[in-house]
Amino acid sequence: MKIDIPVIANCLINGSAQEPLLVADLAAYVLKNKNMVFPHKHSFYHFVVFTAGTGSHTIDFKRYEIKPQQVYFMAPGQVHTWEFQGDEAGFIVNFNSDYFQSFLWNTDYLMRFSFLSGALSDCLMDLDAQTFKAISALLTELITLQQQGADADILRSMLLCVLLYIEQTQGHKKPLTQRHSYNATIYHNFRKLVDQQFKSKRLPKEYAELLYITPNHLNAICKDYIGQPAGEIIRARVVLEAQRLLINRQLSIAEIASLLKFADNSYFTKFFKKQTGHTPEEFRKLTS
User: Fold this and answer.
1) Which residues 6+ apart lie within 8 Å of 228 measured at CB?
2) What would the DSSP string read from start to end of 208-266?
3) In this structure, which CATH number among 3.40.50.300, 3.50.70.10, 1.10.10.60, 1.10.1660.10 belongs to the domain 178-286?
4) Other CB atoms within 10 Å distance of the CB of residue 239
5) Are strands 45-52 and 70-74 parallel, antiparallel or unpaired?
6) Do domains 7-169 and 178-286 have the same CATH topology?
7) Helix (H) or strand (E) holding 74
8) pLDDT range class, residue 7, cuts 50, 70, 90
9) What's the gap between Cα 232 and its chain centre?
10) For the stretch 109-120, what's the b/e string if a residue is b when 16 or more beta carbons lie within 10 angstroms of its beta carbon?
11) What is the pLDDT of residue 280?
C-alpha cells in the first residue's frame, strides 16, 4: 500500500550521481524537469529566486502568485508543486540537509535561519532591490564556480554567504539576540520533536517533559516566538500531515485516520473539519 507522495532524494533531480548541491538557472531547470508538475517532496533544502515570471507556486497547500524579486524557501518534507506560465527566470538552489555539517563546528547552524524551518509564515520573501541585486550576483557567481569544478568548501562558503545576507537584510521581526537565544533554541527543538512525534504525542505537556521545562514555559516561548500556543502548533502539524496523505487517492479516509493514530474515522473527520473548515472528503475535492 502506497502511503506517501513522491519524494525526490537527489539534488540533481534527474542526475545519475548523488550530489549535495545544485545551483542552476531556473528556466533551464524547469525545461529539464517540465514533467514535475505533480505534488512532491524533497529530502533536501530547496529555494527559488525569481527574476521574472508569472503563475503560481503551491507549498504545503498554500498557493502563492509568483512575482519578480521573490524568493521561496522549502525545507525537507514539504509538499510543493508549480504552475508556471513559461516566462519564469531566476535561480534555483538545492542542497542536502547535512551539506554544512562537515564544514561548521555547530551542526545545528541552519536553525538560525527561520526561513529554512518549513514554517509557511517564513517561506516567502519579497526582496528589496539592493538585496535582489546582491543575491543575483552571488548566485550567478556560484553557478560559474560550480561549473568550473571549484573546491567544495568554496561552494559551501558562497552558499552560506547567500543565506546570511538574506537573513541580515530582510528585517526579521525579532532582534538577532532573540532569534539565537536560549528560548529560540527551545522553540526549534520543540518544532523538531513535533515533526518526529506528532502521531503519538498530541499534548504540550508531553513535549515539555522531553524539553525539561513546564508546559506553561513552553506555551510562553511559542507565543513569544510566533504568537501561537504549543497546542496549536501540534494540531497544525497533524493537519498538515493529513493534507499530505489525502492527496494520495489510494488511501481511504479510514486508513489515513489509522496512520495518524486517531481512534476512529469519525474522530479524525471531526478533528480535521474543526481545524480546516472542511471534511477530509471536501478537501480531496478541492485539491483534485
Assistant:
1) 222, 236
2) HHHHTS-HHHHHHHHHHHHS--HHHHHHHHHHHHHHHHHT-TTS-HHHHHHHTT-S-HH
3) 1.10.10.60
4) 19
5) antiparallel
6) no
7) strand 70-74
8) confident
9) 18
10) ebbbbbbbbbbe
11) 95
Residue 284: burial class (beta carbons within 10 Å; 0-12, 13-18, 19+): middle
Strand bridging mode 7-8 / 62-65: unpaired
Which residues 6+ apart lie within 8 Å of 148 measured at CB? Answer: none
Cell of 154: 568554496
CA dist 214 to 199, 210, 218, 221, Å? Answer: 21, 10, 6, 11
216 contacts: CB under 8 Å, gap ≥ 6: none
For 272, half-sphere exposure in the C-beta direction (CA atoms, 13 angstrom radius) is 27
**Domain coordinates of the chain in residue numbers?**
7-169, 178-286
Model pLDDT, residue 70: 93
Listed in sequence order, the residues at least 6 apart from 241 whose beta carbon sits closer than 8 Å to its beta carbon are: 198, 199, 260
What are φ and ψ of residue 49, in 5° steps?
Answer: -110, 125
Query: In this prediction, what percent of the chain has a pLDDT beyond 70?
Result: 93
Sheet with 70-74, strands from edge to edge, namely 21-25, 89-95, 45-52, 70-74, 124-126
Place domain 7-169 in its CATH homologous superfamily: Regulatory protein AraC (2.60.120.280)
Q: Which amino acid is at 181?
A: S
pTM: 0.77
Using the 8-state DSSP alphabet, how is residue 12 labeled?
T
pLDDT at 21: 93
Bridge partners of 56, per DSSP, are 65, 83
Q: How far is CA 127 from CA 61, 69, 124, 271, in A?
A: 23, 5, 9, 38
**pLDDT exceeds cutoff 70 at 2:** no
